[in-house]
Amino acid sequence: MNSLLGAVVAILMAVSVVAAAQADQPAQRPATHPSLVDADLPPLIPLETFFSTRTESWNHRVSPDGERLLWIALHDGRPAVHFRDLDADAVHVIAADRAVRWAYWAADSRHVTAWWDDAGDENYHFLVADTETEAMRFEDRTPFPGVKVRFQQWFPDEPLVYLLSDNRRDRALFDLYRYDFARGTRDLVMENPGDVASFATDASGKVIGVRRLLANSDWVFEVPDGDGWRTLVRGTPEDEFRITGRPPAGQDWAYGISNLGRDKKALVKVDLVTGAEEVVHADPAADVTSVDIESETYELVAAWSEPDLPSMKIFREEVRAVADHFAQDGPHWLSIHSRSRDFTIATVQVVRDRTGPTYHLVDLVRGKVTPLAAPRIADHADQLSPVVPVRFPARDGLTLNGYLTVPTGTDGRDLPMVLAVHGGPFWRDSWGYHDYDQLMANRGYAVLRVNYRGSTGYGRAFLAAAEKQFAAAMHDDLIDGVNWAVENGIVDPDKIAIYGRSYGGYATLVGLTFTPEVFAAGINVVGVADLELAMEKAPPYWRNWMGRWHKYLGRIDNPEDRAHMRERSPIHYVERIVRPMLVVHGANDVRVTRDHSDLIVESARAKGLDVDYIVFEDEGHAIRRWENRMTLAAAIEQFLAKHLGGRASVGP
Q1: 633 in Cβ contact with 538 (< 8 Å)
Q2: Which DSSP string corresponds to 223-280?
Q3: Which pLDDT value is given to residue 20?
Q4: What average pLDDT does the structure give for the chain?
Q5: Are 288 and 458 in contact (CB under 8 A)?
Q6: Contact indicator for 130, 114 with CB cutoff of 8 Å
Q7: What is the pTM of this model?
Q8: Which of 298, 433, 458, 613 ranks highest by number of CB atoms within 10 Å?
């Protein structure tokens, strides 16, 4: 056992002791960094409090008839579905053979549907349970080994009838089926001819459009035309066009999210005959990213964007009253998790930067809000650190947005810092609660997140600036963020670590190989070490979504692109690594296979470099199990304390 893992075991033993004794604060090793030695830091929050799902519940959803409530909480050590009648206290648990990931009421408010996969392999199965039977157990209704099932649609007036797509016929393609779980039938709606990436359907379940990937990585959205198809709109990898919600059968228009002919994505009303668009809502500073639409009436409820802090456009007055209620306590994310069919009762999730997600039952008629659940970390809100939007220019003048978390109790000067890099890369960092960030801030570290070029949410031009810029301008943006923090006196330039997952793990390895002088240490979680390998081993069902990868990174069958990938792959520059590294991987990862971490660790150790390596045999691309998240958190805490000088828990 190496020294880091030995320390992790000791910490986890200490956490168990602390939990058993219900102590307020764990024993700690004091900070050694000069900026923290005399700082008035808040009490050290126990690791388990940041990841305390053992004592929490989530995913609260009201039934369509408005009479019952379900949620997920741990039962016998794993996530399970619980439910009760709203006018009763008795709680029931639905038995399951493994951890349930998501759960929903069926249209009859009697059955519950749920999803699970096998140890992180992302081949999700669809489950059904009858809450009015004695057994009350989930049954796997798509028991197809190695098959991925995706949700398409449910029908409010047809309980247990669902449109689902799956890749049972061909692992690279998804065919659309109508499942009737009451009758036990599975009828083909549309077989994928080989190029369809997604289906759009109306309220009756009819396919009203398909998105097809073209050979040059562009795409077309086609609509039915007699016995064939007609192109409605076409676009490039930077173009976005998707139908939202399920329009009424026979309606010749639909709501959508589109950036066709504009830089930012907007909520639009699109003519399904001509393709013409009418903008319903746009945010000049950011993309409109999501919209909530009533499933039966097709009325708009709300839409969201995020230029820096969350922005919510409200279309239903009942929701406005709810939003105003929560706005009294400052910025927040408000999402409507569920509502009754008559729109009189709902469950909402509210996320703030220092309380994490809280769940509430809302009477939309009377405006009454009843708390349902809050994480244990909410009890420590006054000890956590605010997440502050920041903005600065990249070296080429491009405006970059990000978020800075400065540890409470410090003067915000000359701090050790962690540069946390989001995955994707076609994703973004958002304002809100980040458990690992708050853990690191509580230990004394500033945390900087940068939405580097290629991040979503800031328009097509910002995305397009990342073309063929892996380990180049995309990485320069991260370094420019570091330089901004140093120039403003926030950070000690000698005590900066880089940390990330997936693409963020790749960025960590790039940081340690392309700019080794900048970082004192690196934490790579499920990161890409070899871009060629990543493209070669991409899941087969990614085939019709590869257009953006082809444009921004290249095609693996193109020798010039392959050479470009090799040039940008950290595995070929291991000799440049001079700083300590923590590497973490899930053995069942299908997006970034374990080979990447095995290769980088083996190569680094062969050169005598300082590397700690943790493999979770029961995880995939995300580290989800509570015990494993605790192990990872303890490892990060100890690693950063050793190399940056912040506080840490100590074992017995």
Answers
A1: no
A2: EEETTEEEEEEEE-TT--EEE-S-PPTT-SEEEEEE-TTSSS-EEEEEETTT--EEEE
A3: 35
A4: 94
A5: no
A6: no
A7: 0.94
A8: 458
